[in-house]
Amino acid sequence: xxxxxxxxxxxxxxxxxxxxxxxxxxxxxxxxxxxxxxxxxxxxxxxxxxxxxxxxxxxxxxxxxxxxxxxxxxxxxxxxxxxxxxxxxxxxxxxxxxxxxxxxxxxxxxxxxxxxxxxxxxxxxxxxxxxxxxxxxxxxxxxxxxxxxxxxxxxxxxxxxxxxxxxxxxxxxxxxxxxxxxxxxxxxxxxxxxxxxxxxxxxxxxxxxxxxxxxxxxxxxxxxxxxxxxxxxxxxxxxxxxxxxxxxxxxxxxxxxxxxxxxxxxxxxxxxxxxxxxxxxxxx
Length: 284
What we know:
Elements: E1 3-12, E2 20-30, E3 35-39, H1 46-52, E4 61-66, E5 69-71, H2 81-84, E6 88-91, H3 104-114, H4 119-132, H5 149-163, E7 167-171, H6 179-194, E8 198-202, H7 206-212, E9 215-220, E10 223-228, H8 230-236, H9 247-257, H10 270-283
Helix pairs in contact: 3-4, 3-5, 4-5
């Protein structure tokens, strides 16, 4: 189940004097089992586009096609779009937007029950999802609003995993996480991708893009200006002061400038860089 975005436009506060066009003639195809990052500076339209994928927002003009669902202005009130949210799960940048029940387990189970699953099974699925994100039994009965920011994000992610959508959209997934929690979450997301899920990540973190994603789309002022691999992106944004090249790529480029024969395209993390240096030394 892929996503096709066809010439969509969207403006906030359309009738106001301060109307803001967030998306302008955006077209994009996301294939089944893609692992895609959408990047761009604040205000570029990333989060607006993400909310189109499960009809939380509907384009003023153009179409978003998700399997047999058609999202457009004409269909904006269609009851059929409700079922789309079982297929496309969106985790917001601010997890408190998605938490409202009295306990963690009830919060995670809520979305599952909303799609017709019986209460007992919904709780079981909630427990499995919570453990997937690293929250054990001690969290099940706790109030979600008593949790830390990182723990709230994990609960919000568990709420989406429990529904088991085909497409998972994460808006700044590792914000508020310590390095180990970030690594654990991204390993989980990678495992989900390896098991057939389509993954879309909205992020400013170029290290995350380099380490995990396979394809990157860049938005600028509501328009797609780049679509390619992470390495192609880093070449494209050289000198771009609002998106930074990953630190490991910068080091690799410096080493290459000094004569070290390493392949930049093979460098996705520190371990890759170490292995590339070893390989070069063995050949030297």
